[in-house]
Structure prediction request, 713 residues.
Amino acid sequence: MNAIQSVKRTKESSPAIHRWDHFRTSPLSPCSGRLNWLSHFIQTVLSARLGISVVRFTDSQFFSSSYPSTQVLGYCQSSASRTPIIVLRHLACAIIMSLACVAPALSQTAPEIFKVDPPSWWTRSSVNPVRLLIRGKNLEAARVRVSGTGLRIVGAPKTNDRGTYLFVDVAIAPQAGPGQRQIQITTASGTTQSAFEILSPLTRAGNFQGFSPADVMYLIMVDRFSDGDPSNNDPAQSRGLYDRENKYYYHGGDLQGVIDRLGYLKELGVTAIWLTPWYDNYDRLNEIELKEGKPCTGFHGYNPQDFYAVEEHFGDLAKLRELVNAAHRLGIKVIQDDVANHTGPYHPWVDDPPTPTWFNGTRERHLNNVFQTWELHDPRPVEILKRETMEGWFLDFLPDLNQHDPEVARYLIQNTLWWVGVTGLDGIRMDTWQYVPNSFWREWNAALKRDYPSFRVVGEVKDGDVVHTSFFQGGVTRFDGVDSGLDSLLDFPLFYPIRHAFAEGKKLDDVPKTLAKDYLYTKPNILVTLLGGHDDGRFMSEKGATIDGLKLANTFVLTTRGVPQLYYGDEIAMTGPDEATARKDFPGGFPGDRRNAFSREGRSRDEQELFEYIRRVAHLHNELEPLKRGALVNLHVSDQQYAYARTTKDGAVVVAMNNDTKPIMIAFEVSPAGLANGMRLVDRLGASRDVQVENGKLNVALPSRSAAIFVQK
Ligand SMILES: [Ca+2]
Ligand SMILES: [Ca+2]
Ligand SMILES: [Ca+2]
Prediction:
């Protein structure tokens, strides 16, 4: 940890300690230190009156605060003066010598606080007391007090063997007023303190809303979407990580950029945004994970160094709150990307864990993840493979958190609740879901739902097999005796057939064949359906992909069961064959871009046509009740044609699609959708002429690679 990092993290917890920490970490350089007025004064007096030259005091802290930090490096005698006051001189020398001996000893043992997690909490939470994890040094045998009303210590604090962490429970009185309180830590060597803030709870109305199939979700890679604040592109905390020419460096996108584009998203029909992680990631080049042989950065957000801070390239907590509020005002929900399986490789815990079992293993000695995920639901697993999969470090360097350690579990649960409670966000996309024990998820989900019953979580289980993926959905007790409580999953089993059918032009019936396995899920209707994301190449870079195919894929995702999720830039047919290139900058989101695809004028003809098409289907989804909440009823399946209805008790919408490269005429029964003879239907997409139910059937003619969305005329 360098000095700048240390200063920054301390600053978040306590401005008062900020200065101290800075001085502590300043490199010592004998005989070249900056002397303050007091040390100047002492130096002047000593040399003029006593013939002593003070070589260096490192700083003024020893004199000006209660922290005995000053290190007196030494002194020497002026050769010029040999006066009768030699006795006095010796006395002065003795005093200085005493200071020289005592000060370093005290500075080495005085308690220090680097960080308090969480830095705040709110009244009337179901979590009370709140457990604070205080990171510092010399915390052995510490006594903890709080000053200010409405906050009290519960029970005896716990410390670790090295005296680098304290676990302290604090109870917040229900009527406590909002504002800062002080937490004081005292040992035989001194006292230090840090701030803790009591907040008022956010109003329930308009916050913590959860997501549902009525939403249109849009995934934004924060660093690559829009740069609304160039001043944070190369922040002092982490200089040198910004380079738009390097696909593994920060490009400048930030929370202000998302705020600036909310109008665009609203126009497109988006009602929920999923932002890639905004945790503070490491402030340095990652020299452990090499990309194309070179160090990379944590621009993606999945390598936290601090679970309680916002990445400085993206903004800060105030900006995040502003974003959530601005989105909510426009009827757009906010979904956090959360990580509970691992930390980044440079998290301070890695070399100084709060408990001996904080991680599964240590940096030097740990299992490597073998990704044999089928073992996770095998009733007869090979135990070592299962352990390597659950507890192994991702890529051999991402420290795997041990959620069986009750302190880790409590830390992670509080951390999740804190982001929700302080911002009002609406849902969570949880990274690497399957590598974390179900028993932990049960507790985590229960804690979330206790305070935020409407809240929803979607887990990332990246697997194309419904049998595998459905195992992780909650709502049923599995063979391991646990119901994880998980609401939703990213629908990767459907993602691959969508790509094959609509991008590559392969058989369309693999899509309804996959949907036929829905009975394995407890709640298929809340699955998040997608045709693109930040971990895969773009749709338009698949072999055979066309704009027409992309339109079909979007039509399907926006009209079938589940919560439709779009990926930023797919609406303008952005390309990128692999993970790195699928994360390109949105054109127009960054200063100096040649064109602005956020506006109609900046889009090419193809881009505009596609954007307009997706906008139209998204708005139909938001307008037509059956597309938001209706049951899915299959009406017709053949190699390259698929027709289905979404029905509610009040009506139905019929979707017909032709994935073939030639026009077709299909006839199919619509009585399962409750459509009566004589009913006239109009295609809201304009691909088909009006049709009428005759003999219980619809006859539909569709051009090549097109779709119709029929509603009653
Ligand atoms: Ca920026
Ligand atoms: Ca950072
Ligand atoms: Ca794990």
